[in-house]
Structure formats: structure tokens, C-alpha cells
Amino acid sequence: MSMEIFLHNNRGVLLAYDQGLEHGPTDLDEHNFDPAFIMELAAAGRFNGVVFQKGLAEKYYDRRVPLILKVNGKTSLVKGEPVARQICSVKRASELGAKAIGYTIYAGSAHESIMLEEFGRIQEEAHNLGMAAIAWVYPRGEAIKNDTAPEIVAYAARTGLEVGADAVKIKYTGDVESFKWAVRCAGKAKVFMSGGPKAPTEADFLKQVRGALDAGAAGLAVGRNVWQSPDPLKMARALHRLVIENCSVEEALRS
Amino acid sequence: MSMEIFLHNNRGVLLAYDQGLEHGPTDLDEHNFDPAFIMELAAAGRFNGVVFQKGLAEKYYDRRVPLILKVNGKTSLVKGEPVARQICSVKRASELGAKAIGYTIYAGSAHESIMLEEFGRIQEEAHNLGMAAIAWVYPRGEAIKNDTAPEIVAYAARTGLEVGADAVKIKYTGDVESFKWAVRCAGKAKVFMSGGPKAPTEADFLKQVRGALDAGAAGLAVGRNVWQSPDPLKMARALHRLVIENCSVEEALRS
Amino acid sequence: MSMEIFLHNNRGVLLAYDQGLEHGPTDLDEHNFDPAFIMELAAAGRFNGVVFQKGLAEKYYDRRVPLILKVNGKTSLVKGEPVARQICSVKRASELGAKAIGYTIYAGSAHESIMLEEFGRIQEEAHNLGMAAIAWVYPRGEAIKNDTAPEIVAYAARTGLEVGADAVKIKYTGDVESFKWAVRCAGKAKVFMSGGPKAPTEADFLKQVRGALDAGAAGLAVGRNVWQSPDPLKMARALHRLVIENCSVEEALRS
Amino acid sequence: MSMEIFLHNNRGVLLAYDQGLEHGPTDLDEHNFDPAFIMELAAAGRFNGVVFQKGLAEKYYDRRVPLILKVNGKTSLVKGEPVARQICSVKRASELGAKAIGYTIYAGSAHESIMLEEFGRIQEEAHNLGMAAIAWVYPRGEAIKNDTAPEIVAYAARTGLEVGADAVKIKYTGDVESFKWAVRCAGKAKVFMSGGPKAPTEADFLKQVRGALDAGAAGLAVGRNVWQSPDPLKMARALHRLVIENCSVEEALRS
Amino acid sequence: MSMEIFLHNNRGVLLAYDQGLEHGPTDLDEHNFDPAFIMELAAAGRFNGVVFQKGLAEKYYDRRVPLILKVNGKTSLVKGEPVARQICSVKRASELGAKAIGYTIYAGSAHESIMLEEFGRIQEEAHNLGMAAIAWVYPRGEAIKNDTAPEIVAYAARTGLEVGADAVKIKYTGDVESFKWAVRCAGKAKVFMSGGPKAPTEADFLKQVRGALDAGAAGLAVGRNVWQSPDPLKMARALHRLVIENCSVEEALRS
Q1: pTM of the full predicted structure?
Q2: Is a pLDDT exceeding 80 seen at residue B112?
Q3: Cβ atoms of D246 and D38 closer than 8 Å
Q4: Residue in D158, D160, D164 nearest the CB of C25
């Protein structure tokens, strides 16, 4: 039940690619629409893990990079209080070679209890099969006004710890101090910053990552800021330098 | 878990006949109301597969053409956000000789999560029994304004790929370029154009199919444009020529 | 999985007695309130089957007439979109001696999907235990304006066929021609006319039955028009003559 | 599956004590709050059965009087359409020594179908373990205007019979004639009058019971009219005389 | 199924630390955010039990103090009628060393029936594995105006007893007399006062506890009034003196 396989120097950069289901092709272009392109990028970019839904894992995953199988999901076409239920069994995730399962919990949604219950069951099944359980904790729904407010992000982090996540993926609060509190609230659960939408410049993005690391994060799970980049491998190198080798933003940008 | 059995020259024409449940007898006439007529047509028309609900498969299917058993469904009498749940077990589908199961996902419906979850489970069961899983992905519900808009169709295609469909049945967008994007978004999942309602002329319909093929589709699943035709076998021959032999619309119409 | 046991000359008259749950004692009088009276009537009236809920079967069924165990039901006290869930297991139905299970599907109800799913499962269980599955398909709910409109009745019939019913119980449309279409839409599923509320005269009722038979129905399932009759056995004889011996209404009335 | 163990001279007086959950301590006083007091009363008062929820049975039941384990329940704090789900397994009820399970069905509630389904399953489990199944059938919810109206009480009685209850607990209609109809509608299911809230005088209450017996009831399930009485044992004796020994109200009051 | 392990002199002080999920980090400060700090405090403060969610138990629990594993929970981000479903299996709770499971029932919530049913199942599983079942009974939802009103607290206590809790955690009513009634209504279920939010002074809090003990409570489950205290160990000592050694508030404050 260890996150070790996804870490190098106790840090990790995970390549997220569940946006095809979550956001749809609007996020994709003529290169990155192709999961084979992403699989290559994951390997060539020395990512510590790659995140796929079941369909992509079955048809494209080649085991060169540790797999996190995202076992729930939804389209962005649905309106109303968000809910995403299990769409891949833990057993199948294991058969596909996953070393961890990923699961999104929309904390604050009117359907929160469905997801907390389902994660609780899945986490145990994953641990029984020797896989880690990573929670994407996203406060969302009518009741959530600002999902990057420090107290909301810290609550998300803590929720992950309490319900048994080995790692928690949360949004960045915008500054080191407040994110440090979120990291502390996550306790022994590793914190991965959520990459989020494409930042205006590479430096902007790397500064956020640097902030998260300085606050104690183990790394990040990043998609669009890599594979929407004009030079994804360059971005991958910069992130590797920044996160794994613990460089400054300036050093990372030079790589 | 291969679609091979439904393909010839890597192409396939599937005869859809689940309209009796989905739309009701309003789609049927004195010939095509009879599933035995359809079974004959499937064989004589050299279709690569035939789509039946459980009741029809039990009482009419004679194994001359590979079977796709549609395992969920609903009537069109129900209003509100659409949902169709499993009404045939995967085990029974297999016993009836099916080589694939079909399942409709109403992406964007308030009940989407029910169908994604159910498809997830059914897809695994089908694969475990050596059957392919084909997703009818139909964006529908309050939130969907235009279900043939290019970005919506591409999202449908991608949803099928992400959740593990071996093939996805989607509506045509109306032009080759935009449908090409949908096909690319479906990745290694085969794309079958949805035949849709009877087109004004045969040429109109065949042009759509030609467009889908030119965009990279593996074929189509067609019902009304064949069995509502005054000469269904002639239409079947035209489709065979167009899809399997890769002819032009003009050549196909001459067959 | 045959309906044979319920047929004579390929026709059948089934004695329905699930009204105690569905409508309540308002349908009952000092004779017919008693299930023992009905059991006697079923035998003496040479009915081809008798329909009971589990409670009646357990306490009154004596195996002289083939049993159809109605495995779902609801009271008429509930308002809103109708739903009736399983209240008798298929295994118990079999232990009680049933040769078929009966199940009501409220097509068009907002809860339709619950019943289609449940019927799908129950039909398979029944077949596995050698029992037939009979669907009461009743279009009902906000969306249904007229449940005897020809296209609605034909849709009900077809729904039964598609979901795997061995026989379907539907309302009469009012004329032979339109009911013929419904019967054809039911395909190899046997059609039983629903007896409905007590008709003004015996002749009125028998004419409806004659119409259904002329349209191709296998028979009818009748309750109130028999056991609310001043002479139920006479009515039973008339129906036997009309349905099994294929007499005219006039001949039947003379019996 | 017999009610025999709860009957003497084919009659029974059951001591109901599920009010602690259903109504809360507002029904209780300094004596009757204590389940041990009730257990003593059940034995000393020669009751034919005692009704407990699981928690009371586990901590207070001593097997001197046959146990009816109430396996569903709710608090009265909840508003809206009533629903009470299973809170004790049938297996545990049996382990605790129960000879019957009790289950409340709120007929007419928007959630009726949940309870009918659950009772259907529980009834079979109980029978399989040799226990009787007793239904508390209480028409309730928006749709029910008057739950002691004769046709409503008769419907409740019939519902119990139809769904397989061995005995049904229903409210008194207020007069012998109309209750007689309810009893007849219950058929071979034993009818137990529901004791209801404390009556103004003992005679008032005993007259109701006498009416129920004269109408054919097997007895009653009584709580408050006994254990809220200033002399519960006296009331128990009166009921024993009235019900088991079939005395008049006057004779019973003299006991 | 005994609470004995959590009691000393038939009294117990339980250290509650499920607030991280229930209320979020807003309850936490730079010391008490750390579950390791709490684990130390539980041991050093001679608590009779410690309450953790699964995630904390997996990562921090060291078996020095008996564990109560809280098996359901929710965030405070969700609005509307409260519901908390199971997020830790009873089996896993047992594997983690728990001697009891804790479960919150929001009595009066529109979702009450979900929690009563779930608790019913979990209680049996826990007993089968030799663990006690402790119910946090919190009347809450639209229908509850004042959750410390004496009749509401007594109803909560009684609900715990009726559904089979070995112990019930309830709020203090504010005075000894009314809480005594709640304790009596809980019968053989042990009553633990809920510590609640930080009281203005230590004396204020201890007086409440003293009141609960004088009313017959077995002790309390306390979180914030200990670990938000400037000197948690001092508070722990005071509680030990007050509860276990049965001292007066004044004596306890001197410790």
C-alpha cells in the first residue's frame, strides 16, 4: 500500500490524462488526442506515473511507467450536483497492471455520501490487492463558493487523510503559507498538486509547483500544462528538474 | 474481445433492430414488424452483425449472422432525463450466441452516472466471457442542446473509448472534417455511424455513410434506412458495396 | 419456458385474482372476497390458469389449475408515477407450484427503468427454473394520455416481446383491426387481453373478447367480469366456449 | 410458519413495546420506560407474545413469553412520506429466540414499494427459518385522509394477506360490522387489532377489543393501554378474560 | 460485545478525534492537527478509548489505547438533510485493532432510514466479530428545532437502545434532572455525553460533565475541550479525576 513506486527522492510527477472523459475533446489537439502519444510522453518524459481510465489502459498502456487507474469518472455534459461512480473494478485495474487506483470525491456535493462510501470500499479492495488508493478530492457543488480558498483546500486534504487515501490530489491555494497548512492537514497522506488548466506561461506554472513543493507537497499530477505545451518533453524535463531534483524555477526553465 | 467477427476488410455493416423497444411500432410496417423478416434480411443482405434485444434473440435468432445483444433499453413513452438500465444479463447474452453486447449511455443525462457504472461492470463481464462491448453513446437530456454538434459527437466518441468500449456507435456530424475528429477521438475503438431516421433519398443516406467512412469510421449500424426502404435487399447491397467494397456512392447506387 | 400448459387448442382463459392488492376490497363482494371461492371457480370453470399473489398461493392454492404467480404489485393508495417491485422470489414461486410468473411493467412511468430491469432479471430466473414469464404491460403515468389508444397498446405488446415475455397481457383497443396490429407487434409472444372492469352486459364483454381473438390473441386474463358476475360459472362456460372452442358470441351466450 | 405459538383458544394478546423507537420517550413514564418492567409484565400478565426491537431483545428478553422481533422501524422525528427499513436481520431475530418477525408497511406512502419489496424478502427468510411473519399494515402518507375509514382498514388487511403475512395488525374501524369486512378480507391471515393510544377509560378500550373479537379478530397487539394503565396487571387480566376466555366487557372489567 | 474494555470503575473517558472529517481543519491548530499528537495524548492522558476514522487508524494508531473506529462520516460542506454512509468495513475495523465501531445516526433526517438500516447491519457484523457498537445519535435536519431539548435528547438515547447500540453518545441537555431521564431511557446502553464545542472555561465544561455523571452517564466522548485546551494533559487529568475517580469539579480542577 505504498506510494513508493511513484516517488523518486520522495517526490513524484504524475502525468494525468483522464481529461478525455472529464472535459471531452475540447482539451485535446491533433497530437495529444492520441493516448499512444501520451504513453510515449510518459516514458520519454520520465514521469513517475501515468493516469488512465480503463479504456485507455486496456488499449494503450505498455507498463513502461507505473499506472494509476482512474476508477470513477463523469462527463462535463451533466449539470447539477456532481457525482462520479465506479466504472472500473479494482480487480480489473490490478489485472491491467495498475499500482494505484484513482478516485474523485466531490466533497460538498449533495451526492458526497455516495462517493465517500464507494471510495471506502474501493480503498480496502485496492489495499487487499497491494495497490495504493489516491483520492482526487474536489470540493464542488452548490455549497462550494470558491474551491481554492485555503480552508476549502485544507478541508479537501484532510478529507483524503481521514478516509484512508494514501495520497490526495488537491488544487493549489495560490500561496505557500496557506498550502503548507493543507499539506499538514493531509498528515501522512502524500499531497499532489492538481495541475489545473494551462497557465499563461511556463514560469507561472512552475512557480505554482515550486510553491506547492516548498509547502511540503510530494509533487503534482499534471496534464494540460504538459501535453498542451508546444514542447511537452521540455516541460517534462523542467518539471523533473524542479520536482525530483528540487531545483529552482529558474534552473528548471533552463533545462 | 475483438470486433473482428463483425468486420470484413476491416469494415462492417450492422443491422440494427432495437427500435421496437426504443421507438415502438410507429417505426414498423407490415413487413418489418416481423423479427423473422429481419433475421432473413440480415442473412440475405450479408450484414456483418444484427442487433436484437433479448426477447427477439430468444425467439428469432438463428445464428446465421453474428449477434449483438442490446442489454439495456427503454421505451420512448417516458419523459424526463433519460436512463436505460440492464435488462439482459451478460451470461444470458452469451448463451444466446451473442458475440458482443450493446449498451446505450445517455451522456449528459442527470442519470449518466448510473449508466457509466453499469456499462463499466457489463464491459468487464462481456470481456471475461469473450464478447466485445459496444457503446451506443447518445448525449441527451436537458443539458444537451444539439446532439450532432461536432464537439458533442466527438465527446460521445471519446467517452466510449475512455470507458472501455471496443466500438462506439455515434451520430453523424454532417460533414467529413468534423466527423474525422470524432473518429480520431475514439482512438482504437471502432466507430460505427448511427443510421438514424429514414433519409429523404437513398443517395442522401449513402452520402452520409460515405462521409463517415472517409472520416475513418469502420462502418455503420443501420435500421430504418434499410428495413423501411421499399427494397431492403437493394439497400443492403448498396451498403455492402459502399462500406465493405469501399465503392463510391454512385457505384453503390448502381448495385 | 413454454406457455403450453396454459393453452388448450392454442387458446387460454386465465382467471386473474390479483385485484385484492392492486385495487383493494372495493372490487370484492361477500362471495368473491374469499380466495377459496376463486380456487373452486378456477377448477370448476375449467380455467387454463389462475393468477395469485404469493400470500394467496401459500394459503389457498391447491394445484388443480396451473398457477401464475404475480411476483410484483402495489396498492392503489399510492399516488404519483407508478412503480411495483418484486415481492415474491422466483424460487418461492416455483416452490409454490407456479408454472409462470407474472410481472407488471408500467411502461412510460418515470420508474419504468426499475421495472424493466427487474423483469429482465426475473424472466431469466424463471426460465432457468422452467417457468414462463408473463408481462402485464400497462402504459401509465403522467406521460400517458390514453392507455387504450392503438399505438399505445401496440407499443405495450411490442415491449413485452422485446424484453423477453413469453406472453403479454394488454388492454383491448376497442376494435379488431387496431388490436390485430398489436398482436402482430407481439410476435411470438402470446397475447392475452386484459379483462378490465366489469362491462355493462355479458354480451358487451364477450364481443370484446371475440374481437381480441379475431385479432389473433391467444385468450384473455379475466377477473372482475367473471367473479363479479351474478353467475360466475355461467360466465366461465361462455368464455370457454368462446375462447377454447372458438364459438361466436351468440353461441357462447347460449352455453 | 404458524401463529399457533402466539394463540390460546385460537386467540392471542400480544404486548407491544416498540413505541420507544416509533414515538419516543414521550410515551413512557417512570415505570414503563424500563424494558425489564415490560418483560416482567409480559410474563406475569400471561401475554401470548411480546414485541421488541432488536436492542431490547438483546438486552432484556428472557424467553418466558414468545418473542415477535420487530425488524424495521423509524423515529417519529422524520417528516414526509413515511418509510421504515429493515434494521434487524431475520437470522439475528431467530438467534434471539423470536418465533415471528414484525414488519411495518406504510401502504399508500410514496415509499410503499420499498417496504412491500423488503417485506416480501423478509417473509420468505422468516418462513425458511420457521418463523411467522406479521405485518403491521398502516395506510399513511399524503394520499391517506383517514386511516380508520372502513375501506382503508379493509385494504390494509387485504394487503397483509396478499403479500404473505401470517398475521396482520390493523387499526379498529370503530364498529363491528365494518371491521368484520376487514377481517374477512384478511382471509386466513390472523387479524390483530392495533391497541392504539390510551383510551379515555378501560371500558372504552375493552369495548373496542370486544368489537374486534366479535368481528372475527384473533386478538390484539396492545401497548399503551396496558403499560400506561395505573394497574397494568389488572388490565392484562381483563384482556386475558376478554380475549382468551371470551368474556364480556363487564365480566372482564370485574377480573 | 462488551463495553468493559472502555471502562474503569464502570466509567470511561473517550478521546474523540473524528472532527477532521466532520468539521474540517477549522477545528485544528498547529499541535492538534497531527494525529500522532492525539495518539500520544490518548496514551499519556490515560483515556479509556480513542476515536479515529479509518485513515487515521491505518496511519497513526499504535494500540496503546482501545480503538473505536468511526465507520461512517461526512464533511460539513454538504447542505440539506444530513446523511453519512459507511466508509469503513467492519472487517477492516477489526483488522485495525478496533474494539468497537462508532456510527452516527442523524435521527429526524429525511435520510434517517438509510442510517438506521446501515447501523442495523453494521451492529450485527460488529457483534459477530466481538466488537461493541456505539451509536452517535444526533437528531438533525429540517424537522429538528432544538437538538438539546430534553425530549429530543431522551429520544436520541432511546433510539440508540432500541436499535441495539451498546453505548450511545448524546448531547447534554443542560441540567441533571432532564439528562437523568435520557439516561434512564437508554436502559442498559451506556450513555456517553458528547463533549461538544469548546466551553468558555474549564469549570463550565467540567460542570456539564459532572451533571451528566450525576445523571447516570458512564462518561463522555470529548475532543475539542481537551485538544483545543492550552494544556490538554491537564484537562485529561481533570477529566480522569472527575469521571473515573468520581471527584467533584473543584477537586478535578485542582489536579
Answers
A1: 0.97
A2: yes
A3: no
A4: D158
